[in-house]
Amino acid sequence: MNLLNLIKTYRYFLLIILFDVVITVFRPGTGLTIFKYTAGNFAEMLAIIPPIFLLLGLLDVWVPRETIIRYLGEGSGLKGIVLSIVLGAAAAGPLYGAFPVAAVMAKKGTKYSNIIIFLCSWSTLKIPMFLFEMSALGIKFALTRWLVNIPGILAMAYIIDRLIGEENKAEFYRRQMANL
Amino acid sequence: MFTLLLYLLALGGLLISYGKDRHKTRLALMKGWKAFTNILPDFTVVLALIGIMLTYLSPHTIAALVGKNSGFPGMLASSIAGSVTLIPGFVAFPLAKSLLDRGAGIMQMAVFVSTLMMVGVVTAPLESRYFGKKETILRNSLSYVFSFIVAIIIGMVVGA
């Protein structure tokens, strides 16, 4: 019964693996490459995700909701915007690492637009990435992209905040409350 | 390097927390574990999809796709490649550099790098689980359009 539940929970993943196995049968080279990449992805995820969820658990238990509301909530103003950018830019790791962090931020009362700013900053302003980009593509390229991104992120957050609708927003906050 | 920093931060936090309050620390671990196992099914799907995507859209394929192209069709091709792939930065930037050296345009590469970082088609199911469908569609499509603006500006600044 327990196994059945597990299979049901992971059915889409199992279907993809089944698809990979079928490919491996007909095209062994391609199939093995898929398995190699998939294993690499899992290794990368397992390297970065445990400390993130550990920190999230600690954050949830120790940081009072009032503190987050004061710095990132409604009425946090320019301070909240700057802090959201800094938090996103200081991040390491792929974008999927930002989703659970954003979830805890939401649970603790972060304003919706600041969550989007954080998410966009994580995706494209990451400082470690910037250093790497600079060494590969030159300072002019990296710096221009970084600087153009800031007003772009603010504009996108404003547009999303306006278009998302109150019921979608409320549903988002409800979901994060239930999740952790 | 940054991963190591993250681990040190997490372990340091854990020790301090444990010293202060064992009960709260247990609660924190349970919460972190619950949040992780809640999202794991979607995570495994995304990681498996990326495995397939990387196989069929290798750096080699991307090079063939945008390397010799120029103009708007080239930008379109590289923006699509950037949106559907998920390559770590330490592979993507040297790849973009080598494509540039082989004659790809600066705007094509800028739109590739920008969509690569901002637009995530394969991670959309995961984003949707946290943020809902509407946010996922809005953020990704706005980021896609914005990447072209970024590319044009980079073209003007760097290409000049």
Task: Give me a quick take on this structure.
Chain B: It comes from Neomoorella thermoacetica (Clostridium thermoaceticum). Chain A is mostly helical and 180 residues long.
Low-confidence stretches of chain A: none
Q: How many angstroms separate the termini of chain B?
A: 36 Å
How large a portion of the residues of chain B is in β-strands, by DSSP E?
Answer: under 5%
Biggest sheet of chain A, in brief? none
Tell me the number of helical segments of chain A per DSSP (H or I, 4 or more residues long).
Answer: 10
H-E string of chain B = HHHHHHHH
Protein name (chain B): Putative permease
Keywords (chain B): Membrane, Transmembrane, Transmembrane helix
Organism (chain B): Neomoorella thermoacetica
GO cellular component, one term (chain A): plasma membrane
Describe it.
The complex is a heterodimer of chains A (180) and B (160). Chain A has helices at residues 2-9, 11-26, 28-62, 65-72, 77-89, 98-107, 112-124, 127-137, 139-163, 166-179. Chain A has 180 residues and is mainly alpha-helical. Chain A folds into two domains: 1-51, no CATH class; 63-179, no CATH class. In chain A, helix 2 (11-26) runs antiparallel to helix 3 (28-62), helix 5 packs parallel to helix 7 (112-124) and helix 8 (127-137) crosses helix 9. Chain A starts with a helix and ends with a helix. The model of chain B has no long low-confidence stretch (mean pLDDT 86). In chain B, helix 1 runs antiparallel to helix 2 and helix 4 (71-84) packs parallel to helix 6 (106-118). With 160 residues, chain B is mainly alpha-helical.
